[in-house]
Amino acid sequence: MSILVVDVGTSSVRSAVVRDDATIAADHRIAFLPDSPFPGLVEFDASRLAELVLETAHAAIDEEGGIEAVGIANQRASTIVWDRATGQPVGPALGWQDLRTLLTCLTLGAEGHRVMPNQSLTKVAWLLDTFAPDRAGDLCFGTVDSWVIWTLTGGALHVTDLTNAAITGLMVADASGWHDGLCDRLGIPLAMLPSVVDSSGVVGPATALPGAPPIAGIAGDQQASLIGQGCVRSGLAKITFGTGGMLDLCVGPERPSFADRGGHGSFPIVAWRAGGVVTWGVEAIMLSAGTNIEWLRDDLGILDDAAQSHTVAASCNDAEGVMYVPALLGLGTPYWDFGARGTLLGLTRGSGRPHVVRAVLEGVAQRGVDLVESAEADAGVSIESLRIDGGMSANPTFVQALADAAQRPVEIAPVTEATTLGAAFLAGLAVGTWADLDDIAKAWRPRQRIEPGKVLDRDRWREAVQRAQGWIPDLSALDF
């Protein structure tokens, strides 16, 4: 049995077929970068996104043949408002990175509502205030999963799954329903919100595709990656090292005790919902991971390409005291200091290109361990090994540094992006491709397992972080 997965990321639209042995075939991807008309503004054309979803999905089906079900994975919290009758967006879709509602978030924070600018609720309000100020007409709000499902069903379904709904900021803390008070405060009509469905379960036929296969699996990208790496039991965790870094930890059926953000800087998330039963998780965030390699390549010009960071760093066995704090965009979990800045310490006349590149890779690895320790402390569980995916998982020097800093094994996913596998697993559970979560756990086959070697100095690392913090005091004072 084969499952089509539509996977919409921040920079591309991908459709691929996942077979029942968890291998990927008929992989079609088209670049789809957001626009940034002004610093801090991030938007994209939802109509063009719909076209690319259909184009890649048809291409994958044409190559592979018949499919049994459809799974969807998507960038989270990006926000689209459209007219129910015409199916046309009222304005640009706002990407999750968009910061135009920053002041609204601060205002709501002063009123006692913790809202982050990357969540959907203030973006919905902005789109309404700008393009439909009288709230007239029959409008729909959706995150990217909702828009993809609307597209695949020809406008028949307006739904979202709980992993996506709970990230919007529009739900009550226990994710049992929409937050009437916040919606009223921002002038968001409840009628425009999608119905919330299970992450695994048949929601309806994808009539825009040959054979109208059932849409049966939906998840935000990080939760899909968690499931795609077999982290379906309490204490199992993955980190995705892409442009940024995201750790997600499976907790179980009990919601973490903290309402919004734990004392160690991580957040409660819905990992998935199946059969009406919610599995909870904890998420920790690194604001810049691969961005630091791009900085070495594009801005400093000391690398020809990202892959070269491994060979350059490997030409020295030790950074010889050079340390780098990857805070180009500030620091996320556990520090949450938006005014921290990237810091390079310990340089001597003998420090060369290899030492700097190794220090950058080790700095990202140290930040990864920050996420691990924070999630463990907030969730009250122990993470025995790390499962990783994302572009940096292909860098041997980085992966060894992560194992050394964490002093625990690192398992590399068999595919660079495990989101596609996770969405397929969710759909496959609903249609019988995989029997249960134990089947999903058994399907995990890491490409490689890296054991820790030398010990990276965590105390020295924490000292370096202190040097990086508070560099721009006004930004450091912000708290969401």
Written overview of the protein:
The protein is of the alpha/beta class and 480 residues long. Helix content is 32%, strand content 22%. The strands form six sheets. Strands 15-16-14-13-19-20-21 form a seven-stranded mixed beta sheet, with helices on both faces. It has a six-stranded mixed beta sheet with strand order 3-2-1-5-12-11. The protein is globular and about 65 Å long. The protein starts with a strand and ends with a helix. The model has no long low-confidence stretch (mean pLDDT 96).
> What's the number of extended β-strand segments?
21
Shape: globular
Indicate the structural class. Answer: alpha/beta
**Unreliable sequence segments:** none
Percentage beta strand: 15-25%
What keyword list fits this structure?
alpha/beta, 21 strands, 32% helix, 7-stranded mixed β-sheet, 480 residues
Structure at a glance:
By secondary structure, the protein is of the alpha/beta class. The chain is 32% helix and 22% strand.
Secondary structure elements and pairings:
Elements: E1 3-8, E2 12-18, E3 24-31, E4 43-44, H1 46-64, E5 69-74, E6 80-83, E7 93-94, H2 102-110, H3 121-131, E8 139-142, H4 144-152, E9 159-161, H5 162-165, H6 180-186, E10 195-197, E11 200-205, E12 214-220, H7 221-228, E13 237-241, E14 245-252, E15 267-274, E16 277-286, H8 290-299, H9 308-314, E17 323-325, E18 343-345, H10 353-379, E19 386-389, H11 396-406, E20 410-412, H12 419-431, H13 437-442, E21 448-450, H14 458-468, H15 473-476
Helix pairs in contact: 1-4, 7-12, 8-10, 9-10, 10-11
